[in-house]
Amino acid sequence: MSKNKGILSHYLERTTLADLSFWFNHSPRKPLILRGARQVGKSTLVRAFCQRNKRRLIEINFEQQFKLKRSFESLKPEQILKELEYHFEKIINPERDLLFLDEIQSAPQAIVSLRYFYEQMPTLPILAAGSLLDFTLTEEKIAVPVGRIEYGYIRPFSFEEFLLAKNEKHLLKLLRTYEIHESFPQTAHEKLSQILREYFFVGGMPEAVQTHLKYNAVKHTSNIHASLMNTYRDDFGKYAKGKELLRIQRLFDQLPAMVGRKVKYSEISRGDQAKEIRAIIDLLCQARVIHKVHHSHSSGLPLAFQSDNHIYKIYFLDIGLLNHHLGLNWNTLNQSELSRFLTQGIQSEQFVFQNLFLDDFKMDQEIYYWLREGKSTNAELDFIIAYGEKIIPIEVKSGKSGSLRSLHQFVHEKDCSFAVRFDLNLPSLQNIRHDVVTPQGSVSISFQLLSLPIYFVGQLKRFLSPPLRNL
Question: DSSP strand E in 388-427: where?
Fold first, then answer.
């Protein structure tokens, strides 16, 4: 299932290292807070960055070194550093060191102090991370230093990072350099489709990727998945107690079955009120274990102004964890026809969501979907994104074929000239003409359809530019 050469060195190869380098070399440099779910590799990324940039790492984990919280109460950078120097028994030099404040959500005053470090000691590079930071920012009355800090978003390994970790550099190069007018090698398509199965099983959680590549044993990887899921369950006790904790744990076990579907509270639990379920979903979103994708009417930009906060789908943090939770093992993934396995569409949608716009280090994902409900006119598009001044509809197909009725309806109603389809076919760019039935009669539509194999999702931005320039 994998190539085991150079495992440990490739394990640390995250595209986010380049983002950290850009931050580090930018002037003026603000303290940077890395946001993301627990166990997505924030701390490991910082350590790798320091090692490659020959910076001595001064690391504080406020959950483990809770007494050091008091060192930040003065909010005075010079005094804080003196406290830390006596604790670590070393002089902190802004010209050669990097201060890393891990689990910073446990030390609200440390968050506030970042403002004064930026203003009074800008030469000291400071990175911070917090897996439950959103709770602190929401619940604590903290004077967040707006304009004096930056945020970066860390997510699980992308499919392309997974290829790099497996030392499949030739396939990765093909994905990153292929142009739509060229023929695509069938042998490469077959290899990428097989590795896609592997990624569906392993997912992108760093510990699962490393374990899979090191041991190449299904049991070891599944044990990591189980351990990670238990870690998230254990975290619930940090922001809920008693009956609410039991409710969160119960609903957490039910939510993966809702992936890719419009959330209906009655389908999740008949014994809980809608406001209670909604509050739990919001909590899990704050922990970044699940993500909401809201419906947008998509009649204009920005899409956020067209969105409906009451209509949304959910997606899980990671496809490997999702499939583990659903009981889909490697034998099922490996032995089934890929198109047959993806029939329900849950895995294909989760994969696209998880890998769409992962290069947006400075932004949280802005992804929507479109829904029209009626007695005989239901239509739904999997994802809607904005690219430049264009609204891009995205349809995800489970196999090599499938109806595009909803896409045709969207193109007609929104006067759209360009669309994207992900499926298992080879890449193509087609001019589509189709008749759409409306209450007023049949209407002819025409648009350009960019059709890509699902494993090309990480290259979508690159593919969008040339076609859109011609529209």
Answer: 390-396, 418-423
